[in-house]
Structures are given as structure tokens and as C-alpha cells.
Amino acid sequence: MGTPLEPREAQVEEVLERLYEEYPDSTISLKYSNRLELLIAVILSAQCTDERVNTVCSDLFETYETPEEYANAPQEELAEAINSITYYNNKAKYIRSACADIAEEHDGEVPDTMSELTDLAGVGRKTANVVLQHGHDVVEGIVVDTHVQRLTRRLEITEEERPEAIEEDLLGIVPEKDWQQFTHLMIDHGRATCTAINPDCADCVLADVCPSAKPDADVDLASGEEW
Question: Which of 20, 142, 163, 226 is the most buried (most CB within 10 A)?
């Protein structure tokens, strides 16, 4: 079991320094060529792997190109095109509705504000933050996905549980210049080492500052359950 640094700002600084060194090329893994494709990909990525989304989108983006085309696509047709994605029926509805609004209310352009993005079907703060950061070069928040949730709790950076509360907490202790990369680094480390079920604590660059590190820690602080 490691010992986290105090205050939490010091813990964040140490974690960032080590992960920047471990993952120097960390970036978004979704593949897209414009803002609309980015929005569609992020909507599809909820509770689904980026690898699967990229596979599906390689064909999807050749079939549909404009918001109007997505909006006018029959529900059954679009759902069939993404049927290997989790919750594909609901996601097809979200995409059709969001694209209809983009076409009718935003002149066919993906909005560039948090409020306008989160007004679209299927778009919460996480999705909006990704689109703002990578589509519009606007960084006004931290993307909190399942990896960020898990790692920040395991590392005792936060005790919050809900994504919105975690983001609000992180904004006060993560340097603004690192807001975007913080997420990418957490995702890379979550995939490579700090996995949900069986993290490789023995080979983790953060083990000595992680109070959840096995074999000494009895509890996974991410879930609150015993290892």
C-alpha cells in the first residue's frame, strides 16, 4: 500500500509528472476527421470501447456525412449500422435527434458552447467536454470517464463518486494547463495497468503513492470493496 502525498495538489503534481513520462504520446484514441464525426463517435463511445467505436465508424462515416443525412436516416437503418455498439437503438435515436437540432438550429455546425452542446440529445458534460476540447480547442473542464473515476478515487485524489462532482473537485486541484491531458493520461494508465478488475500494482509507476495498491491495501478505494 502506498502513501498519497499531501495536500492533494502535491499528489496530483506527482501523478501527472510520472504519467507524462510513462505516456509521452497520450491523446484521444477515437478516430474522426471533423467535428460532426467527433460528436457521433463520442456519443457512441458511452459504455463501449473506443476500438469498437472506431471499427463501426469507419463504415458509418462513409455512409453518412452531414447532419441532415443522419437526421433523415430511418431509425431502423441507423440502428442496424451501429448494432455492434452497446445500446445501439438509443444511441441511434440520440444521433438522429442531435443532428436534426444541429441542422435546424445551428446551421449544420456542431455548437461550440457547453450549454448548446448539452442541449443536444445524448450529450452530457463528458461528451461536451470532449467535443469542445478536440473539436473547438476550448478547454473549460475535465472529461470524467470511467477510468478517471476509478483512478482518482484509488489514488485518493478525490472521494467524490458522481462524474459531475468529481469534475468539480478536480477543477480546483488539477492545474488548468493539464486539464485536457489529465484525462488522456488517466485513460492510458487505466487501460495499461490500473484496470478495473485486476490492476497490475506490482508494475505500476504510482504504486508507492497509491493507497489502493495491492497486496498491502485491503480495500479498492474506487469501489469501497475489499480486494
Answer: 142
